[in-house]
Amino acid sequence: MGCRLANSDRSSAPPSPTESSPGATIVKEGEASDAFFIIKEGTAKVVAGGTERATLGPRSYFGEISVIDGGPRTATVVAQTKVSALQLTSRGLTRTLERYPSITRLIFLKLRALLQAEGDSVPSDETAVNQSVLVDLCQRLRKISRSRLVAANSFPSPVFSA
Length: 162
Hints:
Layout: E1 16-20, E2 25-27, E3 35-41, E4 44-48, E5 51-56, E6 61-62, H1 64-69, E7 76-79, E8 83-89, H2 90-99, H3 101-117, H4 131-152
Antiparallel strand pairs: 1-8, 2-7, 3-6, 3-8, 4-5, 4-7
Helix pairs in contact: 2-3, 3-4
């Protein structure tokens, strides 16, 4: 992303390096978590509701939705190759977003693109972005995610013949 994510404020921990072996689950859909990840090296797949949704590589990030709105993970992320990443806690990400509005804008644009890909209405890219805007977008993505899961797990009523 071109920005140094660590800061000198002792109230939030700097990013900590983490590694995952191929096949390892980095985060699991539905679980609570307090971590945001930026991939430095390697690739990982994103699976939501049993469907592979994306492949992530260097400079990609994940975990922002649950860190921003405090809800459970919306997807499982599994390392395809050895993944080296930086991990920030929610407090660390919040402090980073406060200090670097350009990172806040990048996350806003990603959330906006995810909503748009799902066919949902999106705010203008000229929208003033703050924490409440990000929380709103995250919660809207959760609703779409839940309705997709319900639809995937719905079965037609059985038809009985005499």
